[in-house]
Amino acid sequence: MEAKHLIVEGLSVSFGARRVVEDVSFELPPGKVVALVGESGSGKSVTARSLVGLAGPGAHVEARRFSYGEHDLLRLPERAWRRLRGKDIGFVLQDALVSLDPLRPVGKEVLEPLALHGWGTRAGRKARVLELLEQAGVPEPQLRAGQRSGQLSGGLRQRALIASALALGPGLIIADEPTTALDATVQARILDLFEEIRAAGSSLLLISHDLGVVSRLADEVLVMHQGRVVEQGPIAQILAAPRHPYTRSLLDARPGLQPARTRLGPGRPGPVPVSGPVPFLSAMPQMRLPEIPLLEARQLGKRYRGPDRRWRQVIEGIDITLHAGRTVGIVGESGSGKSTAARIVMGLLEPDAGEVTFAGEPWSGPAGARVPEHARRPRRRHISAIYQDPLSSFDPRWNVGQILEDALAVGGCAPAKRRDRVATLLEQVRLPADLFSRGPLQLSGGQRQRVAIARAIASNPKVIVCDEPVSALDVSVQAQVLDLLAELQEQLGLAYLFISHDLDVIRHVSDELLVMSQGRIVERGSTRRIFEDPRHPYTRQLLAAVPRLPQEAFIAPLVPEYALHA
Amino acid sequence: MTAIAPTLDARHAARRTGAPWGAVLAGGFLAALLLASLFPWIFAPTDPLSILPEDAFQAPGLTHWFGTDQSGRDIFARVVHGSRQSLSIGLLAVGLAVAVAAPLGVVSGLAGGWVDRGIGWVIEILLAFPGIILALLFVAIFGGGIGPLIVATGLGVAPGYARMIRGQVLAVRNSGYIEAARALGHRPWRIVRRQLLPNAARPLVVVITLGVGQAIVWASALSFLGLGAKPPAPEWGTMMAAGRDFIANAWWLTFFPGLFILLTTLSTTVLGRYLQQRLEGHR
Predict the structure, then answer these.
(1) Which CATH number, 1.10.3380.30, 3.90.190.20, 3.60.40.10, 1.10.3720.10, labels domain B63-279?
(2) Chain-chain contact of A392 with B177 (C-beta, under 8 angstroms)
(3) Residues 183-222 of A with CB under 8 A from B
(4) What predicted TM-score, i.e. pTM, was given to this entire model?
(5) Average pLDDT of A221-239?
(6) Helices and strands per DSSP (H, E), number in chain A
(7) Comparing C-alpha atoms, which of A296, A411, A291 is closest to residue A358?
(8) A259 has a pLDDT exceeding 60
(9) Which chain B residue's Cα is nearest to A398?
């Protein structure tokens, strides 16, 4: 399908009296890429949805001009919209889990637009489905086409969704956070795919919170904040010379741009005077290590029986050593076994091989050397956890106060003192005290993760396992949470096992790094060494896949230069 | 894109059925019914059993709102007084069903392994019988009357409840917050008591509301077949059965008890759906 000229002039969307998008204008000529960038709640998704006539029930869409080629989108009847959607305009949604029918194999999902718009013959359509899945980077398309969305990982689901949006080769593709949930290498493949599509003459409207993703493809960028476009222009200009303070704060919050272990959020110290002590060097890895590691995992192995009754080795030969006050990062793609390793370290999963010791004493072991739960439970409070999705880790019936009091009960805090301790905890994670009686649903994503952090430190732990703790957060919120974690580590001497698929984040927080692929550690070493001199081909591929802003072309040095010269 | 259509449709549907006036009406009707079952004389001061042969077969009118039956008893009074029997049969039957099903479901969901499989088989076998046949069998063995009627209805619906509770327990057991509680080092019993059971019980509110309506229909059906309350007791199913012989000439004998069975079930369904949306919308 040939791309047409999309013109949006003065687009406003309101729900009742609430105006969520105000006066957005841009043009998208064929073969070009326009990006909408902003954090959650900025109105970028609503803008995108109104471009396909799906602004939602109760939405009132106004515009001075709103057309795609010869179609006047403002006055398009629903029937005509249906002809346009899928065929001329493809829409890739952010949340693949809820956008795919859980009862239908994904192959059928991709087939549907083809069948609906009468594409080719039956056999031709079948072949085309496999081709599309392959194109979108789904390995073993034959096998995957027969699986339902619940059986696929998040990355595969997202790719299936992209395949279905691309099915009819639409001239305009609107992609709402298409790679947010994906690993770096998968993300790179999807971006490659978009690049090919663009080269073939289609135009693309990309919505993202990540300027790095956008910078690779976009010709023009609109930065949105609270429903308004605060800055608009060619990508190079915006990256090189952002004019609006909001754009600047978005750029600053990217961990990849900042030296490791410095503050990312507001309150970040400026260049430090050359004379005198350098504050963040105190947080740099100490060269001398204590004799006994806090937590040690040796040769961990775990295997599962798949649906085909064949055994799959999920992890093998994993060694992890954690010292107080230090952070070990685990980086790897989804399915690489990093979460399995974390669950074994937390004692929620028993290994099939290897052992874990905590403070020199057995913590977990395989059959034959199992540590009985009653021996482990009293020590569980020393190892706590922060999860990727804090919401699902909170009891839905409880408010913030109850969640924290419940965690305090484990640390042996007397019931009478709990209320005061909760207040202290909230203060420690920089949350207002009146959040006490709020339910988790009434909190923002960043606040939820702060509550999760408060819960994790409630029992005075020595180790915190952080499983993708900032992956679901906006950049600026992510920056604040990372700052908070670093602060708590320094204050409380915590050891972090930090799992992430985001290389920028992992580089920023960790002292030592483990790179995992297919259940094994393929490379280990100091974070600095790995980023400066990656040795394993997989690590190199991983590092190369990260989308970078031009100014990040050379990865920001781990130690700021002015500090080195001091 | 076809993929978005279901979510949007679902949202529309939620808007339509979420209209609170339906739920308010249903709640109001059920509240009035509850009041009627506790203090029937507020609504109908007439004795539902008093016979007045000269008043037989009066059509609905100002003196007898719902008319009278073959013995001149006031149908309105009988329907109002019948609410006590019908409602208590419904509530007690569901109460019994939950009492039987909850332990089975919880044990099955928590224990897993062969215990789960064993209980699963029993539930499957019971489910394979149509519930009403199971209830009929029970009444046939233990005789009619209110007591066996309640037990029969309760046991008839129990297997379905047990399976649902098991599923609920399993879902909560595998949830993130239970894992978080385990990781914190809470004792298993504390987790079960404070988190697992309350969360697994949440959807039960809805099922119980729906179940009361269903149980009333069942009990009425059994009474209609002559296996429940005995005439002249003012029970809706029994009244319908008694009026069946006169349906050609005096429709009101069957119509009004039937209407109340319908309205009660409808109200519980509407209210149940509303509660369901409220609770599920919460998460």
Answers:
(1) 1.10.3720.10
(2) yes
(3) none
(4) 0.74
(5) 90
(6) 21, 21
(7) A296
(8) yes
(9) B195
